[in-house]
Write a structure and sequence with these properties.
Helix content: 40-55%
Structural class: alpha/beta
Number of helices: 13
Shape: globular
Oligomer: single chain
Largest sheet: 5 strands, parallel
C-alpha cells in the first residue's frame, strides 16, 4: 500500500495508522543513512517553516532547524518576541503564518493550541510537545529500539514515573499502535486517564500489544526489553510539586538493581533532559532542599553501556526530518 502523508498535520500518533508510523520510521532510517554518507536531500529549497516555542528546548529546536536545513528549508524561530496568545489570538496567528509559511511547528502548553493552529493555518502543523502528547519523541524512541533490538512488535517497554502527561500518554499510544507490551510502573496516582487506556485497548486488539499498570516493580521489570523514565516534574509545573513527586516517585527511581531485574539485553531510555547528577542548576537546588543527588535515574545507569539516551536524542533529528519531508 502506497503511503501519502502530504498536507497532513502531525499532532498526535492517535491520528496515524501502524503502517503510516512504520513508513515514517523507514523514511527516517533512510535519511539517517544518507546523512552518514553525506548524501544531499535538499529537495525542498524555496520552502519556509515557522518554529513556535512557548516552552524552551534543546533537542526539539535543534532537530527541527538541522532537519529543515538539510532539506533545503528556511526556518523562523518564534519565542518570547512574538505576539502569539498575547496581543493576537491563536486563530489569527495561524491565518497569518499560513500565508507566509509552508509548515508550522508548535512546542508549548495545551493540545488545543496546536489543534487550533492546524485548524486555521491551512498548512501542515507539527507538534513539538504539548502537555498531553509528544509524538516526535515517540518516533525517535521507536527508531532507537528498532536499531538496538532489531524489531518492535512483542517487545516489553516499562515506563517508570508520572505516566499522566505527554511521555506516558504517548508511549501508551505508540506501543499499542505498533504491538509493543507497555507497562507503566508507578504510584497509582500517576496512572494515565482511563479514557486513553480505553482507546489503547482497541489498538492493542489490532496490533497484538498490551497495556499494563502496576505499582509492583518486580512484576513490571520481569522480562523487560526497555526501561524508560522521565523527569518527575514536567515543564510548566510549579516548584511546589517537587516535594510530593519525590516522596511518591523515589521508590520508582531507575537503579542498577532495576536494570538487573530486566533482560540482560535490556536498554535504558530517557527523552532528556535528565537529573542524574548535580551538574544542573535544578539538580543542585533539589539536592539542597531534599538531600538527594540523583532523581529519576541514577548516574550509574545513565552512563552505563545499556543506556541509549544519546542515540535516542540524535534520532529526534532524523525522525523529525522524515515528518517534515513526508507532510510538507
Amino acid at each position: 500500500m502506497k503511503i501519502n502523508l502530504k498536507g497532513r498535520n502531525f499532532l498526535t500518533l492517535k491520528d496515524f495508522t501502524p503502517e503510516e508510523i512504520t513508513y515514517l520510521l523507514d523514511l527516517a532510517q533512510d535519511f539517517k543513512n544518507k546523512k552518514k554518507k553525506h548524501v544531499k536531500v535538499d529537495k525542498h529549497r524555496g520552502k519556509n517553516i515557522a518554529l513556535i516555542f512557548e516552552k524552551t528546548s534543546t533537542r526539539t529546536r535543534c532537530s527541527f532547524e538541522v532537519a529543515a536545513h538539510d532539506l533545503g528549508i528556511m526556518t523562523t524561530y518564534l519565542a518570547e518576541g512574538s505576539q502569539i496568545g498575547k496581543k493576537e489570538s491563536i486563530a489569527d496567528t495561524a491565518r497569518v503564518l499560513g500565508r507566509m509559511y509552508d509548515g508550522i511547528e508548535y512546542r508549548g502548553f495545551e493540545q488545543k493550541i496546536v489543534e487550533d493552529l492546524a485548524k486555521y493555518s491551512g498548512v501542515p502543523v507539527w507538534n513539538g510537545l504539548t502537555n498531553e502528547y509528544h509524538p516526535t519523541q515517540m518516533l525517535a524512541d521507536m527508531l532507537t529500539i528498532r536499531e538496538h533490538l532489531g524489531s518492535l512488535k512483542g517487545k516489553k517497554l516499562v515506563y517508570f514515573g508520572d505516566a499522566r502527561y505527554n511521555i506516558g500518554n504517548s508511549l501508551c499510544i505508540v506501543c499499542s499502535k505498533l504491538g509493543l507490551n507497555f507497562t507503566a510502573c508507578t504510584n497509582k496516582k500517576y496512572f494515565p486517564a482511563q479514557s486513553l487506556v480505553d482507546e489503547c485497548a482497541v489498538w492493542n486488539k489490532e496490533s497484538g500489544g498490551s497495556t499494563t499498570f502496576t505499582e509492583d516493580i518486580e512484576s513490571a521489570v520481569k522480562d523487560a526489553d526497555i526501561i524508560y523514565t522521565d523527569v518527575w516534574v514536567s515543564m510548566g509545573e510549579p516548584d511546589e510539586v517537587w516535594a510530593e513527586r519525590i516522596k511518591d516517585l523515589k521508590p520508582y527511581q531507575v537503579t542498577s538493581d532495576v536494570m538487573k531485574k530486566a533482560k540482560p539485553t535490556a536498554i535504558f531510555m530517557h527523552d532528556l533532559p535528565s537529573f542524574h547528577n548535580l551538574d544542573t542548576t535544578i539538580g543542585k537546588e533539589i539536592s539542597k532542599k531534599f538531600g538527594i543527588t540523583e532523581m529519576e535515574v541514577t548516574d550509574e545507569v545513565f552512563e552505563s553501556s545499556q543506556s541509549v539516551v544519546f542515540d535516542e536524542a540524535e534520532n529526534r533529528m532524523h525522525t523529525i526530518k522524515a515528518v517534515i519531508a513526508a507532510t510538507i
